[in-house]
Amino acid sequence: MTAQAQNKITDAEWEVMRVVWSNKQVTSREIISVLEDKMNWKQATIKTLIGRLVDKGLLKTEPQGNKFLYTAKVSEEESVRDVTENMLAHVCSRKVGSTIAELIDQALLSHADVKLLEEALAKKKVTAVDEVKCNCTPGQCNCKHKHQQHHKKHYRVEE
Ligand SMILES: [Zn+2]
């Protein structure tokens, strides 16, 4: 787990991080000019968010003249990866495949995106297993009893 895992980015903070990521180095005024209208936030709100991101160690700040320049201390790729890993950690390992399929189903994709996914799947085909094992704590998912059914074929466990 990275330090970032403890410093999760909130939805509001994502808005600020995206401005910083796409501009490499920005002043608070630049962040405010992008988000003021889009989010309908007050300047003070945006400054609070920036301050929180600095406290969390996600933004670096350095003075330049009478203003401060902000740079991201974590990359966009890394942060997005954290979110998807975190999301998949919330489902049973047996449901990861169908969760990803659902994501694909919901997404608007270009031909290039589809090609990228096809290539990723072709690679996965080589290392695919016959059955993904459930990693859940009993009581947190219902596939344990499917396992029982599987192992003790003669018993019918029904609830
Ligand atoms: Zn499970």
From TrEMBL:
Taxonomy, superkingdom: Bacteria
Gene3D superfamilies recorded: Winged helix-like DNA-binding domain superfamily/Winged helix DNA-binding domain
Transmembrane regions: none
Keywords: DNA-binding, Transcription, Transcription regulation
Keyword field contains Manganese: no
GO terms, biological process: negative regulation of DNA-templated transcription
Entries under InterPro entries matching the protein: BlaI_family, Cu_transp_CopY/TcrY, WH-like_DNA-bd_sf, WH_DNA-bd_sf
GO molecular function, one term: DNA binding
Family: Belongs to the BlaI transcriptional regulatory family.
Protein name in UniProt: Penicillinase repressor
